Amino acid sequence: MVQLDEQDLTRVMGEVVGGVRPSTHALVEEGERRGRRIKARRRAGYSTAACVLAGVVAGTSWLGTQQSTPGEQMRILPGMSAGGPGKVTIPDFSGAPTDTGTPPGKERATARTLARTLQEGLMLPLIWDVQGYQGEVAPRSHYEAIAALRVGAGDTHFTVGVTLHSQFHLTPHVERSYSCDALKDPNQTVFAGGGKVTTCGVRNLPDGSVLRLYEFQQGHQVTPHADLLRRDGMRISAGVSIASGPESGGRAIPVTLREVEQIVTKDRWQVYVDPEVNERAKSLKPFEELHGIADLIARNETD
Amino acid sequence: MGRHEERQEEFREFAATRGARLFRTALLLTGGDWHAAEDLVQTALGKAYASWAKVRRADNRDAYVRSVLVRTHLSQRRLKSSGERPASELPEGAYGDGDPALRVALLQALAQLPPRDRAVLVLRYWEDRSVEQTAAELGLRAGTVRNRSMSALAKLRDLLDGDRESLTTI
């Protein structure tokens, strides 16, 4: 038998392929071409979910096709301000709890659980049916998740969604995010599809958390959105988005600004829940598990 | 230059400097199938391009992309029913000055090993990765890598037994 030991094998391999000279140019060029294709497929895969969730995720820039034009007038909601530094007080987060991992006997809320919580907080007229659910919990150390309900009546369909982001207070320039001007800033907010923010307002709630409400107009439809930064550092956004094309239909969306405000201010939005809560949510059907949406939203990527 | 262009340039530079090395690894992984190795590297680089924002943040980009390469190879092997083409079909002249007999003997012997065993040998002895690093890159336990490494090396010795002449040049 040939006495091929470990050192010999290293040497032989080096001798056999060490002098190989492939066409690096072809490898790089074709690699890049395939990479572009993967990204295009990924975008296409995301586009459906992205479009319907667009309204929920203001504050991200990756969806983009058109932002509200800077300088365009938006109406400030009564009893609220335009927000931003000096106009609202960002909570003092020094006492915010540190995430030390999953508490004993608990587990992270799944996207289905979020979808279920969202459904329970939504009072829809009987004519409207929830036709499906989708969501995702991003695989990150802190909690970032998105869940949405697809709702329809006749030829009108819309999506109502919610995003949760724990430890959001650690994000740079938080105070600037909670302003109406941020909705005009293409670096902070880009909405999928054409349209404009028509009304907006920011205020502190009695417990110190910051709430931003706004309405987005696309064609004849106006959709409500709410964005809350809690004192524990959790950001909760909720909103309605309308599918483009014939699906948008002619019926008015039955969700109001007040209702999305009530959704985000519910204290049921928690990162950790009892296992039976997640277990119960498994009955939600049909549920589509999204991939990469929450992560992309969090990373705020544009490429 | 915008952020997008900067990152694109960064990727190109990385791919251009590491492409040849990745290709040599791919050639060993595919048992000497030049075309499959090209395809494998291009796929791995494509994946790296598509996730460059993540790759560039990795502590060790080389290890990250190599891991993509190896895992892509193993998953392709699971999906494809056809095997690699024999080393004799490889373009002559592209190999440099190495001994052709030795090359054919080793690549053909490697081609007869199960893909995962081949990956273990390539990572351990060509990439000079430790047992633990190999285990991490392949998603295996260290003990499994140790056992596979020993048994694959023994199998390789058996396969090369008939090529005593070429191997005496070692």
Automatic annotation (TrEMBL), chain A:
Keywords: Membrane, Transmembrane, Transmembrane helix. The chain crosses the membrane at residues 44-64. The keyword Transmembrane helix applies. This is Uncharacterized protein. The lineage of its organism: Bacteria, Bacillati, Actinomycetota, Actinomycetes, Kitasatosporales.
UniProtKB/TrEMBL annotation, chain B:
Residues 104-156 form the RNA polymerase sigma factor 70 region 4 type domain. Gene3D superfamilies: 1.10.1740.10, Winged helix-like DNA-binding domain superfamily/Winged helix DNA-binding domain. InterPro entries: RNA_pol_sigma-70-like (IPR039425), RNA_pol_sigma-70_dom (IPR014284), RNA_pol_sigma-E_actinobac (IPR014325), RNA_pol_sigma70_r4_t2 (IPR013249), RNA_pol_sigma_r2 (IPR013325), RNA_pol_sigma_r3/r4-like (IPR013324), WH-like_DNA-bd_sf (IPR036388). Coiled coil: none annotated. It holds the Pfam family Sigma70_r4_2. GO terms for molecular function: DNA binding; sigma factor activity. GO terms for biological process: DNA-templated transcription initiation. It comes from the Bacteria. CDD domains: Sigma70_r4. Keywords: DNA-binding, Sigma factor, Transcription, Transcription regulation. Belongs to the sigma-70 factor family. ECF subfamily. This is SigE family RNA polymerase sigma factor. It comes from Streptomyces mesophilus.
